[in-house]
Amino acid sequence: xxxxxxxxxxxxxxxxxxxxxxxxxxxxxxxGRGDVDFLADPGLTAIWRERAxxxxxxxxxxxxxRALREPLRAAVDAQANGEPLPDPVREELNGLAAKAPVAxxxxxxxxxxxxxxxPGAGPALAREALVLLAGEGRGxxxxxxAPSCGMYFLRTRRDQAWCSVVCGxxxxxxxxxx
Length: 178
Ligand SMILES: [Zn+2]
Description:
It is a single chain. The protein has about 180 residues and is an alpha+beta fold. The chain has helices spanning about 5-10, 15-20, 40-50, 60-80, 85-95, 120-135, 165-175, and strands at about 25, 35, 100-105, 110-115, 140-145, 150-155. The chain has one domain: Jann2411-like fold (Orthogonal Bundle). The chain is about 45% helix and about 10% strand. The chain has a two-stranded antiparallel ribbon with strand order 1-2. Strands 3-4 form a two-stranded antiparallel sheet. The protein has a two-stranded antiparallel sheet with strand order 5-6. The longest helix is centred in the middle third of the chain and has 19 residues, at about 60-80. The chain is globular. Zinc ion binds near residues 146, 151, 163 and 167.
């Protein structure tokens, strides 16, 4: 990934909301090819919050974001590897999601509104993760294997190995050079 792409974080706010939090680590893109963690660098955290937009997740305190990211990454990583979720991860997400009741309200126009009643964004995101993992994510979550990426995504083709066209081009160019 080029430095420019990296700071623009074009993948944040574009995929499933769960990936907005899991995809805050760029694999092999740091000095000495270590990983770059957006939640470990105040400048990158600020850009990430901006990219995440006006959703509750963007306003979540840093400690809560880090704590929530751990089971979410473990869960999507297991699915990307075709493995069952580790029991403690599954239980943690189940427990978190149980703290996110949704209130239904009928408004004056006769429309039904869903309102999150839990304080903070964590429980609702955990609930969305359960729906993703058991539903559209099942068998479709992949981890991009292009150099300097490692983002999780929902594949749209069976053989899709990269999260984006940019990553596909970079991976092919690297292969040609090798
Ligand atoms: Zn990628």
